[in-house]
Amino acid sequence: MADLKRFESKEGADAIVSALREDGAVVVLDLLAPDLVGALNAEVTPHLEAADPGMKHLNPAIAWFF
Question: For all residues of the chain together, what is the average pLDDT?
Answer without folding.
Answer: 89
